[in-house]
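User: I'm curious what two different proteins look like when written out as structure tokens. Can you demonstrate?

Assistant: Sure. I'll show them one after the other, since each token string lines up with its own sequence. Here's the first protein:
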Amino acid sequence: MFSRLHAEYKAIDLPDRANFSPQQMQTASDQFLDQMRRRHSVRDFSNRAVSREVIENCVRVAGTAPSGANHQPWHFVAISDPDFKREIRLASELEERRFYSGGAGDEWLKALEPIGTNDQKPHLEIAPWLIVVFAQRWGHYDDGTRFKNYYVPESVGIATGFLLAALHHAGLVALTHTPNPMKFLNKMLDRPESEKPAMIIATGHPADDAKVPAVAKMKKPLDEILTVAS
């Protein structure tokens, strides 16, 4: 993608400009806040199909995220194959059993109690899609020379946030999953050494009887997450 010998700065006019009035800005921000307040992390999925085209568009949204030096240090693997999903579930549950049997420590397990999680992850098999997020620690110029990526965790985190918002905007629910370690995903999905698995996102429609933990609706008020320096 990048040229080692012909990298240079070239400015172009800003191609897109919203130019909202103050009232339009307020309305747009109110509407987006209302929409995102309806986002839930769901563990109970329906097996109702979701088209590949919808998933691709959501990943395209993730690909618009800002990144260090515009290196875009991410790769997404979308999986709908039932056999693949089952393999991922079995491998993840193996790591989760170690986690919940003492690997996590008492304090961490205590913090998870209100969420109601355990080492069983059926959603990894039931959800119609799994999206595995990989962080690319280095890349290659067009001539094959290796280059370092910068601000990788920050960039991948922003892109993942874009992806979750896009899935919600498309009418889907999602659940992030981070078994530790996740190195098994490189081999299973044939990803290179330069990439580190960051997250598994299960996504689809919620089951008819889907539940969420009550504590998940307890969000910090604005005065606890915002300081305005004037």
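Here's a second, unrelated protein for contrast:
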Amino acid sequence: MKDLFSIEGKVALVTGGSRGIGEMIAAGFLANGAKVYISSRKTETCDATAKRLTKEYGGECISIPADLSNLEGIGTLVKELSTKENSLDILVNNAGASWGEPIEQYSEMGWDKVMDTNVKGIFFLTQQLLPLLKKSGDAEDPSRVINIGSIDGIKTGLFDAFSYGPSKAAVHHLTRVLAASLVKDHIIVNAIAPGPFPTWMLSTGVGGGGDTDIDWSVIGDQNPRGRVGNAEDIAGLAIFLSSRAGAYTVGQTIACDGGVVASS
């Protein structure tokens, strides 16, 4: 019972780990003794985040930049990780994209970018990492896949991002489908649906231009908890799902939103 939430010594991959929710989860994993690989499209940003997190939390945070919206980028990441690790304990599919335009001008390019990154990327990265995940998991301690969805996949979003909410709803259902298929291989799949967190993506939606160092109280005051989420909130849930405590939780989408969905 004393080690219910331990992830000490686990090997994790967090996609979209160079900023935002991915960075928060990576930091929480590192602080609790996991070895963490992070991936994002921009090499310099990914490398800088890995270096900073290693310095701040200790342990090993290793950068593997890749574009996960296409099979070539997914293959690059899988090949590089496979040269470094024989197995993978935790996969956090966090890399995501959004696109905002009025419905009359909403572009096919924007639609495809969101669907390719948010849905196709999750499926094919998980598929290609199955050998490493299967090697790690057993009946006593299954490997874990955590897909990052959104409350916009549960309720209607506030912005003109017409492909984003549907893509996240697809992530939530894909989580159930993958969970049912992979549980027999000792791989547990769940999803987290975050609400408002102080991220680059939300900042662009509320007029902050991507700057996360803004006054978030305007958003937080509208939340039932009276604030936006923080790193401890999202990392704590990810650690629960990755630990012994979450070993009987399968195929669920858990909102981490301060009560937005419950109050809507």
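A detail about the second structure: The mean pLDDT is 95.
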